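User: Um, any thoughts?
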Amino acid sequence: MGTDTNPDTRKRRDRGSISVDEILTGAFDVAAQVSIDNLSMPVLAKHLDVGVTSIYWYFRRKDDLLDAMTDRALEQFEFTVPSIDASNWRVSLRDHARTMREHFRDNPILCDLVLIRGKFSGRAVRGALHKIEQPVAALIEAGLDSQQATATYGAISVHTRGSAVLERIQAKSEGCPAPRAHGKRYIGFADDIDFEYILESILDHAETLIAS
């Protein structure tokens, strides 16, 4: 009697033998290969070598899975790196904005989940708000009042995230021209020049406020 040597006939893991943490880790791995848009429960189940019902046991819909992935991404993302130094606030705030933008540019999954999808649990939001206390406190120490410090850091954050989102959309759009195709720049397309111009404008305004 012959034996079945097909490697695809191996027994799948039993339901309950996989944890939420394993599912989320696997989901990030799969999303990195196929994108958030193309992530599906059957594809994830195949990657984890489990039946698809094992995924549905914990996450009834793809949206539930994406919610959990977003919360994990938000918890692990360091919004305050590098920290703001009150004695050298302009340089450190500039470095902070550039680093945050690079994080989102270098990690499309993070950008898609946190910036474009943008659905967070209350716990994740509270954690994110706690992380921005240091930059605001440093700007107050540098000479801004609390309202000015909050507005300044808020403007930096919105500008940085907005630039990353626009670049991500440009990257995903078929037929979208490069920001500087053939040596030309296109109005309305995000690039390094626009990012730096607006960033310096925000910093100039903050410096004016401190001087006054």
The mean pLDDT is 86. The chain is about 65% helix and 0% strand. Residues 146-172 form the longest helix (27 residues). The two ends are 91 Å apart (CA to CA).
